[in-house]
Amino acid sequence: MKENSGKTKFILLGMLARQPQTGYTIKKWLENEYSHFWLESFGQIYPALKELVKEGLAVCSSAPEKANGRRQIEYQITDQGRNALSEWLKEKPEVEKIRYEILLKISFGENTEPDILIGHLDEFLHRQEELIVEMNYFIKLFDEFKESGTDCTYSKLTALCGLHLYSAMKDWAVEAKTIISERNSHNEKTKNP
Length: 193
Fold this sequence. Notes:
- The chain is mainly α.
- It has helices at about 10-20, 25-35, 45-55, 80-90, 100-105, 115-145, 155-190; strands at about 20, 60, 75.
């Protein structure tokens, strides 16, 4: 996953292009829809929203009063903001970089006990299974939205990518466990003929 790399502005514009939102709804949307493939600092949201307004890419207004009597600020994209988003979407994406600490640990596996690696892989496998369940939930949710008239095709595609990625990583972990176990069994037999 990538950490914040100056794309916050465009993430916010993309979200505002869908519908006007408050900083809170943006934060929740980031947590739910984007966290499986993009890490964004929540501390950047409000300053970035203010910067969008300053640059004329968004406007803000008071949202309807909440039950607790507090008003929230709602942000809406401007035509200039839509143009900036459109130009960014035309740019070639940066090359993807992955960072999985478990791959580093497996790579240096000859320096530890096989049971330790198997334990790491079991935990990794469990996380992948949870993420697969989460992606399936989102895919189903996006299908339900479509049935009620809200087309979430592009959001569904990101969840589908997550589903394929986490399924592949789960399959890799199962295979890695098998290979480590077989290697360990073979080494034990050669030590004790």
